[in-house]
Every structure is written in structure tokens, then in C-alpha cells.
Amino acid sequence: MSIFGLAGRAVLSSAAGIGRAALLVRSVFFWSFKAKIEWRQAFIQAVRIGVDSLAVTMLTSFFTGMVLALQAGSTTKNLFNEPIYIGILVGFSMVKELGPVLTAIVVSGRAGAAIAAELGTMCVTEQIDALYTLGTNPARYLVIPRYIACLAMLPILTVFADFSGILGGFLVSVTRLDVPSTTYRQDILTFMTTSDFMHGFSKSFLFAFMIATVCCFKGLSTRGGAEGVGRTTTGAVVLCMVLTLVLDYFATAILVSLGI
Amino acid sequence: MIEISGLRKNFGPKQVLRGIDIAIAEGKTLCVVGGSGSGKSTFIKCIIRLLHPDGGAIKVDGQDITHMEDEYALAAVRRKFGYLFQEGALFDSISVWENVAFGLRYLSDEPPSRYREIAKQKLALVGLDNVCDLRPSELSGGMKKRVALARAIAAEPRYILYDEPTSGLDPIMSDIINDLILHLKRKLAVTSIVITHDMKSAFKIADEVAMLYEGNFIARCAPEEFRKSDNPFVHQFVEGSGEGPIKMKIRDLE
Q1: pLDDT tens across B7-26, in order?
Q2: 3-class DSSP state for residue B30?
Q3: Exposed site from B1, B43, B226, B245, fewest CB < 10 Å?
């Protein structure tokens, strides 16, 4: 097959995938209004996605905040002879960008992989077919609870990540860079507004929606036994991570143009 | 009654079912036999509309379900069916009794307070006690099949579709499953379609045996007649012989 044929096939297959994912989203909306929500399942998923990811999210953000403070400190020391604006730099970076993005990446790798692998295994062991024969469907029983859990937990995790990162930055600023703790605190409290917080917070909903869609769709499209489940899981995580960064740019562009 | 006429199903260019015509009378058990990949599972998945047929008609109790798209209408039709999956397809994340009671919430009007009791009854019917709170991963192959059978009959369906109920089981457990199928038939007066390539099982449980070959039924008759059939394809299958007109798979391998 020629290179054009291969490229054409890849484009067609991607377009078909996007179309099927859109159908999944449509059925999520349809069943959200048509049938009773499986709150028990949503709660179980919320615990898996939220509570179980909390420690790793906070740890990642904490060290990122520490690194940011170190880098900011050494740069401003070179430029101005003393470490200044550390609080502003760490605070803005964490709250507007790194908090939501890091959380989305950690959740993709941890909970997203689990969602894709679980649904993928259910697919190849006919458990998805069994749902239909038992009077329900995967959108209702599996997908909607995972959407609810992602949409509820990712913003909460993002808030924890924000605080954890700022705390990490604070620790390094005070102990390594000798910045007075009041200066660090004042930097943040004086220059940061609710709108800055909302900027990052609103992006976390977008990432949650994307992670739930990608991982559920990939999981439910699994074919080919254990190898297929492995492929699905890797594909879902990689796609989530790439889309997190791509969507982050477009979301930031839109939010900035809206003045948020 | 299930009536099927001209049923066709393709996967890409491959024609799996090529115009199947068959009717299954109330209370009867039809065993569908045929080699691996002959379309047996596709056939029953079309009947319960897990697969969308490409042509023909499927009628359940006179209602044409071939092109039914409405999820609620399809759920109402599926309410009449129990389906035993080849590997059981039990949900790993919930306990045995929750698996058995799973369909009650969607397929029956029973109050949730009775779910556990009903699950226990159905498990007893398939000869299982004291497994209610175990996880499916803690069960043996035969027990999984029986739990799956209990789940299939929990909402008291009128039709049961069995996808290779004895595959992967030892001969004694296979016979126990066969007896269970017969027992359920007598006790619940259900109509059954059993997909199998276990001829011993087919002869024991079937009212009629039909053989699927290259997308069509090439024989359909009572078990005794089937056993003595002079159709060379049927004869080869019953004998389990490598010599005969069914050579396609071997040729594929070569």
C-alpha cells in the first residue's frame, strides 16, 4: 500500500474512532436523563479515582512546588541578587497550570489506566454482553458512574495539588532560600485572585471529562484478549496525557481571551 | 416461539450466517452443533440482538425484533431471555449472590429486600450452597458455569440460550450440567437453544439437533436420527473424524 493509502487509512480510522467516542458521549447524556443513576457504583469509583489517587497527586505536586521554588530562587538571585517573587511564581504556576495538569496526568496514569483495563477485560470476557442480557447497558452501569466520579474528584484533587505545591514551594523558600514566611504568604495573598484559581479549577473539569471519555471509550473498544487489554490501557494513558497538554493550550487560550 | 427466516450476518467480507431458516417450538430444546468458527455463537447473539443481523427476520412470540433499535423495547424482549455465556461472564467485582441477583433489578419487579433470598434459591437449584459471599475468582470452572446458569434463570426467563455450557469441563461436571439443563427444562418449562460441539451432551439434552455448516443448517432432526444420519458432513461430525468432507480448517492450516 502506498504512503497515501496508509495515511488515508489512519485518518479514516481516527475519524471513525472520534465518531464512536461521540456516540458514547451521546449515550452517556441520554441515559443520564432517562434512567436512574447508579450512585453506588459512582461512589465506589469516586473512592478509587479520588481517595486512592490523593497521596500520589499531593506528593507529585509537593515536589513540583519545591522544584519551582528552587528554580525561581536561583534565577531571581542571579538577576536581582536576591530571591524575590517566589510565592507569586510558585502560586501562579501551580494554581493556573501545574495543579490541574499534573493532577490530570497522575489520574490518567493511575485511575485512567485502571478504568481502561477493567472495561477492556470486561469486554474480552463477554461481561459487557452480559450487561445487555441482564437488562442494562455499559453506558448506564459502567460509564456514567465513572464520568460522575471523574468530574467530582478531579477538581477536588486539583485543589489539593494546588495547596500541596504551594506548601512545597513555601518549605523550600523558607528553609533553603531564606525568604521570610510572611513574604511568601503575602506574595500569594496580594497578587493572586479568585479568578486565577478559577482559571485552573475550571480546566480540571475539562480534563475530567476527557479522561472519562478516552478511558471508557478505549476500554469498551477492546478486542483480542490479554494483549488487547494491554494495548488498550497503554493507548488510553498515552492519549490522555497528550490530550491533557493539547487541551490545556486551547483551554488556556479561551480562558485568557475571556479574561479569566 | 422463536421464528427465524433468512437470517444473514457478515463480518466484513466474511459471510458467517447465510440465510438461516428455523423455528423453535415452545418448551423444546434445540441443540446447534458445528465446528469452531461455524457461526454458532453468532447465531444466538443475533437472536438476543447482541449482534445486529444484516438480513432476514427474527420473531420472538410473533414480534419482529430484527431491526428494533429502541433500547427500552429491546430490554423488554431481552427480559424473556436468559443467556449462559461460554466462560460464564460473571462480574468479578461483585460477590456470587450479587451476580445472580444482578438482573433482578432491571428485569423483574421484585423488591430489593428479596434479591438475596432469590439468589440463594437459584443457587440451590443449580446445586450450590454456601457460595453466596464468595467472589467469582474463588470458584472452580464448573461452579462458575453453575453460578452463571443461576444468574441466567434468576429472572425466570421463558427462553434460555446456552453458549457451549459444557466446554472446558471434565466429563462428570459436563454430565451434571446436562442434568441441570434437563432439570430446568422440566421445572421451568423453558424453551432452550444450546450451542455445543459436545455430541454426548447434544444427544442427552436435545429434542432436536441442527448442524450449522458454512452459514446454514445442513441437517435438523431428532437426536437418534441425527446419530444415524447418512449425510457425510453430519456423519463425520458425529464420529469426530478428521477424514471426510469437512476439511476447510485443515486446508487453512496447511
Answers
A1: 999 998 888 999 899 999 88
A2: strand
A3: B245
The number of domains in chain B is 2
Range B151-168 average pLDDT:
90
Among A118, A127, A136, select the one facing B106 at the smallest CB separation. Answer: A136
ipTM for the predicted complex: 0.88
Per-residue pLDDT tens for A193-251?
Answer: 999 999 999 999 999 999 999 999 999 999 988 999 999 999 999 999 999 999 999 99
Interface contact flag, B89 A130, Cβ < 8 Å: yes
Q: Compute the nearest-CA separation of B112 from chain A (Å).
A: 14
Q: Which grid coordinates belong to A103? A: 493532577
Interchain contact, A126 vs B87, CB within 8 Å: yes
User: CA of A128, closest CA in chain B: separation in Å?
Assistant: 8
Q: Which residue among B50, B78, B86 sits closest to A135, beta carbon to beta carbon? A: B78
Question: What is the total count of domains within chain A?
Answer: 1
Structural domain containing residue B237:
2-80+158-253
The answer to whether the beta carbons of residues B205 and B33 sit under 8 Å apart is no
Distances (CA, A) of A44 to A107, A115, B39, B75: 16, 12, 39, 26
